[in-house]
Design brief:
Blueprint (H helix, E strand, L loop, with lengths): L6 H42 L2 H34 L2 H6 L1 H28 L6 H30 L4 E4 L4 E4 L2 H5 L2 H31 L4 H36 L1 H7 L6 E2 L3 E9 L12 E8 L2 H7 L5 E2 L2 H6 L9 H20 L5 H10 L3 H6 L14 H9 L5 H30 L7 H27 L4 E3 L3 E2 L9 H32 L8
Antiparallel strand pairs: 1-2, 3-6, 4-5, 7-8
Length: 531
């Protein structure tokens, strides 16, 4: 079945979507966090009447607006790609994926677009309190927008609250709350948004540190550092908590991703967590079932992986080979068996379609299977594995090893994300402590560190999405639809052309953002709070 797939089309479609998503995510996290930081600053201004706080608010609000405008442009392109490049996916997910995106457009986007005008142009035209409300609602609207998009993405990672309709070959939502409040959705929303809050905090302290290094706007910079550091410390604590919850959720629902994150080839009890690791040779050949991880450097924390996954230091954590080859002792089904069951589910659907006009009794019998919970749980849940079926037993085993994500990329992305997260928390604490003791201006090393941590915050943010998306490959919908089956049947040349056109467009937008932002930062806040 794999030989019928146009891998050139699949790879270019994946590259185009990844390009769009990664550029879009350059702008989104700053919007999520900076909106709340600005709202906190304006709240202090309204409460105290101190015009310096108004000046601070208006400066950061201006940078928020620049970033928001460019982020919207890339987001619109991203949603259109579902219809142009991923039409098979769009059909298969039925109303499940579309509903959250529709709610995002109707509810969150209109909330943002309504109040952002008051936020930017309402100074002196509406009361202070109404303007403050508009600022808060803009920040909340941006986060609500992220909520619905992340709910949709979470369903792809853990498809729940739905039922497959064999007559239309679509998944249909049967319980909105199961989709909206799934453990994957809750953890993904909280972890992703708090990562945006941390990035925005890093952005504010980094720019403020630059002002201190230039000995400009000292009071402005110190106050900004205090607000952003406090917000960053709280957000970092939340990020650690939500990351812990996300790890356990992944261990339960996406065990292969969890194993790839730690390059765990053989399952272990009392499994250690690799705190620092550098591959000598990464086990990235999925066709070589005897491959092993070879580390040049490895620092482990005993028992921590078992505890992180199942809150027990002696818990068994399945490795990549356990999941692919199966483990009867641990009651882990092999990928070969899942492929066979998925193939049977696909053949059942095919026979159901063929019997519609020729054999009413067979049609009714097969339809009943898709309503039989036991059959659905034991066969249809592996529907996507059927795409890897091959009657040749040797080829079937090779295909089973193809259902393994890129291990080294997943491993490094995960550890870079975690390591940088610890650095951010430490930086916030140091900055807040030095500012409170009025010693921050003399600590040039700390100030330069804060400034150059800004790009690291973006690296960590992108690494988190690499873990989430690369780590679940080859699935576009976990266990139900592989990426290769989701693409539109279009000419791969058109995808290549649009890929390069999008690359030029997005690079241009990124350069424009950096130039505009840099100019506004160099100009600094206007003197006088009412100007």
């Amino acid at each position: 079945m794999l030989e019928n797939i146009d891998l050139t089309l699949v790879n270019w479609s994946r590259a185009q979507f990844a390009l769009t998503a990664m550029f879009h995510w350059l702008f989104v996290p700053l919007t999520l966090g900076l909106g709340f930081i600005v709202a906190f600053m304006e709240s202090i201004y309204v409460r105290t009447g101190d015009l310096e706080w108004k000046r601070i608010t208006k400066f950061w609000m201006k940078l928020f607006g620049i970033n928001f405008a460019i982020g919207v442009a890339t987001g619109i392109i991203l949603e259109f790609e579902f219809g142009t490049n991923w039409s098979n996916y769009s059909w298969f997910v039925g109303d499940i994926f579309g509903a959250p995106l529709a709610i995002e457009g109707i509810m969150a986007f209109f909330l943002e677009s309504t109040f952002i005008a008051v936020m930017f142009f309402g100074w002196g035209k509406v009361s202070k309190k109404f303007h403050l409300v508009a600022t808060w609602l803009t920040a909340i609207g941006a986060n609500l927008s992220a909520l619905w998009i992340l709910v949709a993405n979470a369903w792809m990672q853990n498809p729940v609250g739905m039922k497959f309709n064999p007559e239309t070959a679509r998944n249909e939502m049967v319980n909105f709350w199961d989709v909206f409040l799934s453990e994957t959705a809750v953890n993904k929303f909280l972890h992703t948004t708090t990562s945006g809050y941390v990035l925005a905090s890093i952005f504010v302290v980094g720019i403020s540190s630059w002002f201190l290094l230039k000995k400009r706007h000292i009071l402005f910079a110190k106050r900004s550092i205090v607000i952003a550091s406090v917000f960053g410390i709280i957000s970092s604590a939340m990020l650690i908590g939500t990351g812990d919850g996300s790890a356990r959720e992944i261990a339960r629902n996406q065990p292969m991703k969890f194993a790839a994150m730690e390059s765990l080839m053989e399952g272990q009890t009392q499994a250690p967590l690799i705190a620092v690791g550098l591959f000598g040779k990464a086990p990235d050949d999925p066709l070589n079932k005897d491959s092993e991880s070879d580390f040049l450097v490895k620092i482990e924390i005993p028992n921590m992986l078992s505890y992180m996954a199942f809150l027990k230091v002696d818990a068994f954590v399945p490795g990549i080979k356990d999941l692919v080859l199966g483990n009867e002792v641990r009651n882990i089904m092999s990928y070969k068996e899942k492929i066979r069951r998925g193939y049977e589910a696909q053949q059942t659907l095919k026979a159901f379609k063929e019997s519609k006009n020729s054999d009413p009794e067979e049609y009714a019998r097969l339809k009943a299977k898709f309503n039989d919970k036991e059959w659905v749980d034991n066969y249809f849940r592996y529907f996507g594995y059927g795409n890897y079926y091959d009657p040749d037993p040797e080829q079937l085993e090779l295909n089973a090893f193809k259902i393994v994500p890129p291990i080294s990329m997943s491993f490094y992305a995960f550890h870079i994300m975690v390591g940088l997260g610890m650095h951010f928390l430490l930086l916030f604490v140091v900055l807040l402590w030095l500012t409170a003791r009025n010693k921050i201006e003399d600590k040039k090393v700390v100030l330069y560190t804060a400034l150059w941590t800004i790009p690291l915050a973006y690296v960590a943010s992108q690494a988190g999405w690499i873990v989430a998306e690369v780590g679940r490959q080859p699935w576009v919908i976990q266990d139900l639809m592989p990426t290769m089956s989701a693409v539109s049947k279009i000419d791969s040349t058109s995808v290549m052309i649009t890929f390069w056109l999008f690359t030029i467009t997005f690079v241009g937008l990124a350069i424009a953002e950096v130039k505009i932002m840099t100019k506004q930062i160099k100009n600094g806040p206007k003197e006088g709070g009412d100007k």
